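The step that takes the researchers longest sounds almost clerical: writing a folded protein down as plain text. Below is the pair of lines this work produces for a single protein:

——
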Amino acid sequence: MMYMWFIVGVALTLLGASWLVDGASGIAKRYKVSEFVIGVCIVGIGTSMPELTVSLLGSLRGSAEIAIGNVTGSNMFNTLVILGITAMINPIMFTRDNLRRDMHLNTLASVILLLFAYLPIAFRPTESLMISRLEGGIFLLLFAGYLFMTFRSGDKSEEVETEGEGKPKPLGLLILMVIAGIAALALGGKLFVDKGCEIARALKVSETVIAITFMACGTSLPELVTCIVAAAKKRNQLALGNILGSNVCNILLILGCSSLVRPLIVDTVNLDGFIILIGVAILLYISALLPKRNELSRYKGFIFLLLYAAYIYFVVLT
């Protein structure tokens, strides 16, 4: 029975992602919003709803390793696997704003997470090292500022594709698609994770490994589907915006909300994950500066996939 519900969860997640992307893109086109802003502010946040659900449930149950491991693992999966696959389908071109602003913000969010978790060690006992409610509140304020800056910049240099789209859908239908998509993502993500964890536990896999690998990959399914579709349609700025927006949302919004529910205790396993997370963000930026410049090419995407395989090998077998 758990295998059947696992498949239902996968189907709902994929269907919800499709509704969300179509509805959000339709609404954004009506207001002439660029593809990158669509990816960051609408699709990126919407596809992060499974991560939010999992991390909040982990926080409510007092399981910080689930909340933190899910976010760090999901961001690594987003960057190395999803962008890797996307680049192999269709190389991703980086704009000047991507290099000057968006890449830096993606890295900065990871650095802030590390600093908030470990810098206050001088002001509180080691045994209570945590991401506190105060720091969670700061995360949420930073996320609000991030959204404001993204909307304000607007990425106006990029034209929104409207040709070949057919007659626009009614606004009410588009809004309904967004709401239904988010609901399907939340329900499908919960079924996928819950039943997937039951299967993993039956195979005697540890909680930490489940959070960093299985759950993180599972809750990233919406981002994966969105980026594959965007790559196939050669809408790479939508795909890149989805991943960068999702990464920032995972740290600032999801961990912010989770730590407000209950402070998240940090341990040495989390420290390793934070450092790797920063390294992955820096790697993405460096990859845009190496030959071919301003492009995540197919061979770079393949290298990203190899690096993720090496990371999984390190986590599971060491």
Notes: Confidence is low (pLDDT under 50) at residues 155-164. The two ends are 33 Å apart (CA to CA).
